[in-house]
Write a structure and sequence with these properties.
single chain; 158 residues; alpha+beta; seven-stranded antiparallel beta sheet; 6 helices
Length: 158
């Protein structure tokens, strides 16, 4: 059975350090990141590819560039975001449900998903890691050690 650990960073450098440590510990393909892209204002960015340099110099482009599948889109009620990792695919084409709906699909309870969506709306950097039961505590510890707040573990629904 797998689980998902979720945490919020309010400091870009801490999020980047946590992401690098998670990758070094073998979690690379299981990490997802969601954050507002403050530099893109209200313009639509759906289907733009961060890995091709579309956001070079952006506030979060470097962090998202550390993960495969990074992209940007406009989420109703949240605004322009950067998403990377497995969760990016669930956000593509979202019309309703937003980030909270994608987190529910991951196994996060709806009320917690709404809370995390609000954290992103307010500028937080959401990081999730999906892993087996025996490794999930290690992922949570790495996130906490790098300053993540609101770190929680939930059973994955996928």
């Amino acid at each position: 059975m797998s689980k998902v650990v979720v945490g919020v960073f309010h400091d870009r450098d801490q999020a980047e350090s946590a992401l690098e440590d998670l990758k070094n510990e073998g979690f690379e393909k299981d990490i997802s990141l969601v954050a507002r892209d403050e530099e893109k204002g209200g313009m639509s960015m759906e289907n733009q590819d961060l890995t091709e340099g579309a956001f070079t110099g952006g506030a979060l482009g470097g962090i998202a560039g550390l993960l495969a599948g990074a992209g940007a889109l406009l989420i109703p009620g949240v605004g322009p975001i950067i998403a990377a990792g497995p969760i990016a695919a669930t956000l593509t084409g979202v019309v309703t449900g937003g980030i909270a709906g994608s987190l529910v699909d991951y196994g996060i309870p709806e009320e917690r998903g709404e809370y995390y969506e609000e954290q992103v709306r307010q500028g937080g950097i959401l990081l999730t890691v999906k892993s087996s039961d025996e490794h999930i505590d290690e992922a949570a510890s790495i996130m906490r050690n790098h300053g993540a707040g609101d770190v929680e573990t939930h059973r994955s629904s996928k």
